[in-house]
Amino acid sequence: MYKPATIKDIALALNLSPSTVSRALRDGYEISEETKKLVVAYAQKVNYKSNPIALSLKNKRSYSIGIVIPRLANSFFSQAIAGIESIAHERGYFTIITQSHESAERERANINHLAQRSVDGLLISISSEASDFSFLKALHDDGMPMVFFDRTIDEIDTFKVTSDNRKGAYNATESLIKAGKRKIALLASASHLSITNERRSGYQKALVDYGLPFREDFIRYCNEGGNNYQEVEDAVKGLLTMADKPDAIFISADRISIGCVRALKNLSFDTKEIAIAGFANSDVVDLLQPSISYVKQKSFEMGQIAIEMLLKLIEAKYPITEFETRVLDTELHLVQ
């Protein structure tokens, strides 16, 4: 009867300890490259296959991480997930990615499903519809490790990582002011999101610092965060058909920035009369016509920090009671 090779078999054959073989197979940083190559080559030779079920029973872990994001199609989130997986893979964890599509109901269903699948922890970026976090708090109080990234909430005391949204918004608005614009509108995501409030605050501070009025009638919210193009087009049209219309628009969300450029072209507005600056992490933002100044977030780094925070919670031998919120700088890219 065929008996699959085990870590102990490989260790015996190579005169190594089982723990060294295990770390080598998981690409552990503490193992030399020479030893890793030796172990991997022999493991392939004997057709070694890891046993994730046995590993999870031994360590009381599933070695899986649940990720809850609004949309994978958003460049920011796809880049953040790449950062998450770069660390998770190295540490021997698998990821399960779910999308809320900005729906609070779907977000809750996804989180419940992941919890029932016995994931070791959750990485969450809140949907635009979410407002009741009691179920998340109950899950956290029951011992589920969770870390929030980008879109965070105050209701749960845990690790969080986000961007310096106020400064990024301030810098983008300031660039429009320095370009001679005086009537700057704001196109934003759902008003209750943490990132929306922070970016609106930065936008408003720049106006005040330069002696410009803050006008509520110059603000438009796109509750679906740019995922509904018609919503963006209607918002742009509403702004640029005002009797006293703006001469610039600051956009506080990635997909809304792309949608705004598309709307300007489809509605045949003279793009020379309107300047745009917005948050954008798209790989094609430099190719947009009309071109825009944009704030870029450190999405890949954010993903790496978020997973490191979560693994700290998961692998801690004692309960962690003190948490930090990391705030990453943004980069302003001006129109050339």
Describe the model:
InterPro entries: HTH_LacI, Lambda_DNA-bd_dom_sf, Peripla_BP/Lac1_sug-bd_dom, Peripla_BP_I. GO terms for molecular function: DNA binding. It comes from Mucilaginibacter ximonensis. Keywords: DNA-binding, Transcription, Transcription regulation. This is LacI family DNA-binding transcriptional regulator. By secondary structure, this protein is an alpha/beta fold. It folds into three domains: 7-50, no CATH class; 58-163 and 299-327, Rossmann fold (3-Layer(aba) Sandwich); 165-296, Rossmann fold (3-Layer(aba) Sandwich). It is built from twelve helices and twelve strands. The protein has helices spanning 7-14, 18-25, 33-45, 52-59, 75-90, 104-116, 134-141, 165-178, 194-209, 229-240, 254-266, 299-315; strands spanning 64-69, 94-99, 121-124, 146-149, 160-163, 184-188, 219-221, 248-251, 275-279, 293-296, 325-328, 331-333. The strands form two sheets. It has a six-stranded parallel beta sheet, with helices on both faces. The chain has a six-stranded mixed beta sheet with strand order 7-6-8-9-10-12, sandwiched between helices. Helix 7 (134-141) links the parallel strand 3 and strand 4 (146-149). Helix 1 (7-14) crosses helix 2 (18-25), helix 5 crosses helix 12 and helix 10 packs across helix 11 (254-266). The longest helix has 17 residues, at 299-315.
Order of helices and strands: HHHHEHEHEHEEHEHEHEHEEHEE
- CATH class descriptor of the largest domain: Alpha Beta
What's the CATH topology name of the largest domain? Answer: Rossmann fold
Tell me the β content: 15-25%
How many DSSP E strands? 12
According to CATH, the homologous superfamily of the largest domain is Response regulator
For the CA atoms, what is the radius of gyration? Answer: 24 Å
CATH architecture verdict of the largest domain: 3-Layer(aba) Sandwich
Task: Please outline the major beta sheet.
Answer: 6 strands, parallel
Helix content: 40-55%
Low-confidence stretches: none
Compute the separation of the termini in Å: 70 Å
Structural class from helices and strands? alpha/beta
Mean pLDDT over all positions: 89
Shape: elongated
Protein name: LacI family DNA-binding transcriptional regulator
Pfam families: LacI (PF00356), Peripla_BP_1 (PF00532)
Keywords: DNA-binding, Transcription, Transcription regulation
GO molecular function: DNA binding
